[in-house]
């Protein structure tokens, strides 16, 4: 069955999620413009430039601020991105698996070139909370390695890794910070991860983080906390990974018997 909302946009009532129009059909003006703008974007190719704000206000018969709000929504959603002084259609989000696979593997699977830029690598005394997570003594030296994450030529995240100096004493001299840390551990140190605990949440970047990743502070970010364990079930690393919410989604394969969701 097809219904037409008050905006004149056809909506498939059998779709998994309707287009955001409530049953009473009354929507804010910016959302009506957003629906029309989404239809326009769907008809363009990745990288194509949108008409100017002035052209869009004339096309949709809406105020410029109304158009700007609709554009901000699609920018935050990752459908659009800024290029110079214009706005272009963005490509699909990077689908990163929630698994023990490294960031490098996940990005390469999607045909993109992973990269990292080292921000900081130093050792410092382990604080009490981190020592408890990594089963270390308080004050024991730990490495802190912070790197900006890239996919092709685009900054997409920020990663902080904490690991005991005693377990990777040559990290600062032997490791190429633009390479996979997991590959280094496996090939050079002989450590393989067995399992990990992860927690995923949404946050806003701090001004410093936004500057490093190259995003507005108001852009929602996806934050993953991970504690990984080695083959002896010993905690090995603590990672804080911050990903752009407009460029990333995460996938997981679930299995098991029993009734489905209620």
Automatic annotation (TrEMBL):
<dbReference type="Pfam" id="PF07702">
    <property type="entry name" value="UTRA"/>
</dbReference>
<dbReference type="InterPro" id="IPR000524">
    <property type="entry name" value="Tscrpt_reg_HTH_GntR"/>
</dbReference>
<keyword id="KW-0804">Transcription</keyword>
<feature type="compositionally biased region" description="Polar residues">
    <location>
        <begin position="1"/>
        <end position="10"/>
    </location>
</feature>
<feature type="domain" description="HTH gntR-type">
    <location>
        <begin position="26"/>
        <end position="92"/>
    </location>
</feature>
<dbReference type="InterPro" id="IPR011663">
    <property type="entry name" value="UTRA"/>
</dbReference>
<keyword id="KW-0805">Transcription regulation</keyword>
<dbReference type="InterPro" id="IPR036388">
    <property type="entry name" value="WH-like_DNA-bd_sf"/>
</dbReference>
<keyword id="KW-0238">DNA-binding</keyword>
<dbReference type="InterPro" id="IPR028978">
    <property type="entry name" value="Chorismate_lyase_/UTRA_dom_sf"/>
</dbReference>
<protein>
    <submittedName>
        <fullName>GntR family transcriptional regulator</fullName>
    </submittedName>
</protein>
<feature type="region of interest" description="Disordered">
    <location>
        <begin position="1"/>
        <end position="20"/>
    </location>
</feature>
<dbReference type="Pfam" id="PF00392">
    <property type="entry name" value="GntR"/>
</dbReference>
<dbReference type="InterPro" id="IPR050679">
    <property type="entry name" value="Bact_HTH_transcr_reg"/>
</dbReference>
<dbReference type="InterPro" id="IPR036390">
    <property type="entry name" value="WH_DNA-bd_sf"/>
</dbReference>
């Amino acid at each position: 069955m097809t219904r037409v909302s008050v905006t004149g946009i056809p909506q498939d009532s059998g779709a998994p999620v309707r287009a955001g129009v409530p049953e009473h059909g009354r929507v804010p003006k910016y959302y009506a413009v957003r629906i029309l703008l989404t239809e326009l974007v769907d008809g363009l190719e990745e990288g194509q430039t949108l008409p100017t704000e002035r052209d869009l206000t004339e096309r949709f018969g809406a105020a410029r601020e109304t158009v700007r709000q609709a554009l901000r929504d699609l920018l935050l959603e990752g459908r659009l991105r800024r290029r110079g002084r214009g706005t272009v259609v963005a490509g699909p989000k990077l689908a990163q698996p929630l698994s023990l696979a490294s960031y490098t593997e996940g990005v390469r699977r999607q045909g993109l070139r992973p990269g990292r830029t080292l921000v900081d690598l130093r050792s410092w005394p382990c604080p009490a909370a981190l020592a408890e997570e990594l089963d270390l003594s308080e004050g024991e030296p730990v490495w802190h390695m912070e790197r900006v994450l890239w996919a092709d030529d685009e900054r997409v995240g920020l990663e902080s890794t904490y690991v005991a100096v005693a377990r990777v004493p040559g990290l600062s001299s032997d490791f190429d910070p633009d390479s996979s840390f997991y590959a280094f551990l496996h090939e050079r140190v002989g450590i393989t991860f067995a399992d990990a605990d992860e927690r995923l949440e949404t946050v806003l970047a701090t001004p410093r983080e936004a500057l490093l990743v190259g995003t507005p502070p108001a852009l929602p970010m996806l934050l993953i906390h991970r504690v990984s364990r080695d083959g002896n079930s010993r905690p090995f690393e603590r990672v804080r990974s911050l990903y752009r919410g407009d460029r990333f989604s995460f996938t997981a394969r679930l299995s098991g018997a029993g009734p489905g969701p209620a």
